[in-house]
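Researcher: Quick one. three chains, 955 residues in total.
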Amino acid sequence: MGVPESVPNRGPAAAAEVGPVVLDAGDLHRVLTRISHEIIERDKGAEDLVVLGIPTRGAILARRLADRIGAAEGRPVPVGSIDVTMYRDDLNMHPARALGPTEIPPGGIDGRVVVLVDDVLFSGRTVRAALDAIHDVGRPRAVRLAVIVDRGHRELPIRADHVGKNLPTHLGESVRMRLTEIDGVDEIVLMRDKEEAAR
Amino acid sequence: MTQRIILRGVRPLGGESADVVVADGVIHQIATPGSVAVADGDRVFELTGQVLLPGLVDLHTHLREPGREDAETVRTGSAAAALGGFTAVHAMANTDPVADTAGVVEQVLRLGQEAGYVDVFPVGAVTVGLGGEQLAELGAMADSAARVRVFSDDGKCVDDALLMRRALEYVKAFDGVIAQHAQEPRLTSGAQMNEGAVSAVLGLRGWPAVAEESIIARDTLLTAHVGSRLHVCHVSTAGSVDLIRRAKDRGIDVTAEVTPHHLLLTDETARSYDPIYKVNPPLRTERDVLAVREGLADGTLDIVATDHAPHTSEDKDCEWDVAAFGMLGLPTALSVVIDTMVRPGLLDWAGVAERLSAAPARIGRLADHGRPLAVGELANLTVVDPDATWTVDPWDFPGPSRNSPYRGMQLPGVVTTTLLRGRPTVVEGQLQW
Amino acid sequence: MISHLLSAADLDHDDAVLVLDTAAEMATLSDRSVKKLPALRGKTVVNLFFEDSTRTRISFEAAAKRLSADVINFSAKGSSVSKGETLKDTALTLQAMGADAVVIRHGASGAPHRLAEAGWIDGAVINAGDGTHEHPTQALLDAYTIRRHLRGGEGDLSGLRVTVVGDVLHSRVARSNVHLLDTLGAKVTLVAPPTLLPVGVEEWPVTVSYSLDDPLPESDAVMMLRVQRERMNAAFFPSAREYSRRYGLDQKRMDMLPEHAIVMHPGPMIRGMEIADGVADHDRSVIVEQVANGVSVRMAVLYLLVGGAREPRPAELVGEAGL
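Model:
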């Protein structure tokens, strides 16, 4: 079937050249720490929080965030992942993709505050799909959105509650996030479409 | 004298070029090229470098008429034969009604004469209704206007040993031959394709080689015992070639045929599950293909016979299990023989003339076909351009059936000209209406 | 990229593992409040059954419905298939209805191939059992079940020893399993009386044994095939009793298996003949679980074949998915 791996970073990969590093490992560390504090502050403690990441990189970031919140609050925070592949509105436009894991913590999400975590916020379509997926799993009291990079170009009325870095981009650019757990290094790089770069 | 036809520059049996003059239905003159003066009213065919052969003779054709005129008629089948370079075909008996009486064989004969493209020689059924139980009136068919000499229940095997013995004995009275479809029925009940590695994977019921070979072994022994004449239809396995070779070594009067498709195709084609490749006997393995080629080369297999078997698309455009057995063969037979035998050097043109014309005419006891290319002989001739190639498109064939396994294939050898008793039936590859 | 599932041999190693991984994700659905996924919303799946098989049809139907597809059950049994026109005409009907996938069960080996390749329809064709040829989704659910029990639900089956017992000659389940188990790295032993093994089996990637007792102590999984009693009349074996004695899985043979080994059967079982009552209900028998896994595996197959675009993607999108 040769179904390609789910690639969370949207945008051209093959015909792109590497641009500047936007966030390095230290930056990412600080950003995650800040967001975790924002989340705790926002919800006045973290008693009914559930952190759900969108696979692949959002799920890793969710785990890091949950670890930080847990450390700060002195107790573990439920964390999991929610795959949105089958909820995407462009499902019919690509060959079927491998599914990411959906792991809902044992307590479920009913009546809780779900913090949805993704790496890059772009058109908003992924988040829209995630909201649908969450709807099928249960009824949270609230859903908040945390992203590391907001690169603009929204196509839906969606806004992040917690943003690591606002990064104005061209449509011809893309943002590639690499994480130690799967890529061996923490960094966020701006990628330029080759044709775009040549201009 | 009727209009003269000059076949200019042809190479009789692939030999030196000659101008061959045909008049009054016979070969009038074979002269050095350019030495024949063209007179007014002569018809000149420029055929330089092409190979002149005696008109091909098919011992095994299904013309489907009477009964399945939706698949083929004597007329369309004769036309396909002429296009393939044939001047005579034997029409198998498994029509509806079965050709098991003098009346039916005379009807087929008459239809053939009316069509006029080739001489149609009806084959008589061995048993009534191909039922395998009671001998048909073989003598009446032999004595009829059709002068039947070849008898066959083709499509079905005369599996009853006693009945086969009686048939072999009986036809001695009029120099007939039993053309046996060698297929042990119990070993092939529900069988769909060659039994082997491919059938095992495809889950299609296997048709073991031994089902063919066991009947051939039995029949050659019966033939020896009663001192008769046996012809084995469509030999498909290496083991069959071996059995026939040994029988001939022992002096048993057995002849055998191989079809073009068994010279070229293997059971690997079934992997498509396309019933275009479903045929009886089934396509076998590469080893068998090489064995039948070798058998044809060394004369163990005497002739090539087409087993031309037209089927409508309803009978072929379906699941393998329910599809009919058989494939078209007449228009492509010579090309397949050139491809599999001549080009690899297994057979020269004299060999082609022997295997596709002289020998089948002898087996069928035909006086007017399969004759030498000599002055005074009847002009049953065909000319093939051996260097030309063509792409097979069954929609170009004259009949209503399209079940050619060679569709889309590029084959060598284009039949340009066919003469039946001096009359052109095919000119420049086109049928002469 | 395969566009149909006609044979288990269509799947290479990565594809096969992908199906199993996807099935594992599908299986988590049973824990959710809404047991439905939107993947095939607006798509039409036709169950085209020329043979009765309520179990398989229901499994595919459940799978398609859990993926939000519209399901049309088309039971063609009883209509005349003797002339063969039915398959083509039915296919043209389905094409007119805009079927995105056709799940076909047919008595003739290769009928799904014809449906997929004769140019009659555009949709994906999924073989749900054809004659004595193949039953690829059964092999997938068997592999899924084996993987779950013996490989922690991950990766492939390399090194596992699977013994398949019974009427291999007529079994589409056996053919599909041989392909798939080999693809996934398992070592397969086929056990049957010589009459129930196909000529040509020597070219399969398997070991053949005429005795059941020999491979049992070395087996990680034993898969019992159905044996139809009518085979007796065709002289494949002398009697049911003799078959059972030589090739049935009874308690004594069960005790010869390693502790961890599992017992499987594609169903429906003939208790007492090919499998003893106590063995079928043994705690190491996973026969009931196979049924549940069937739905997950069929969801995975439907999703992977029908969930995405059918046509090759436009060139400008290729880079993104890393094709």
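The mean pLDDT of chain B is 97.
Researcher: Thanks, that's what I needed.
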